[in-house]
Amino acid sequence: MKKNKLLWTLTMIPFVLTLIVLPALPEQLPMHYNLAGEIDRWGSRWEQLIFPLIIIGMSIFWQFMLSFYDKKLQKEGDSKAGQEAAANRKVLSFAAIGTTLLFTVMHIAF
Prior knowledge:
The protein has helices at about 1-20, 50-75, 80-110; strands spanning about 30-35, 40-45. It is mainly alpha-helical. It has a two-stranded antiparallel sheet. Strand 1 and strand 2 form a beta hairpin. The model has no long low-confidence stretch (mean pLDDT about 90).
């Protein structure tokens, strides 16, 4: 359960930081630059919420997968299938936290 709390804490950091910074941003922001370094697309400041929403969507997917293996572990118990479910859940937990941390750092860097 602690890992789920860590997952959701890491998930909410970019969303909360974006909501804090959003009022200070100008209405129009450069969104894309061409190879010459010139701005070729402008966007609304509200587009800054897209990446945090993608992170939340990914975390919902990870939570669904983790709960699937939790249920399978409870159903199977100490059998071989239960041990496999526990191992799969552990790997998925590391993958979930790792990808969420990666995307959180990327969002802060952007």
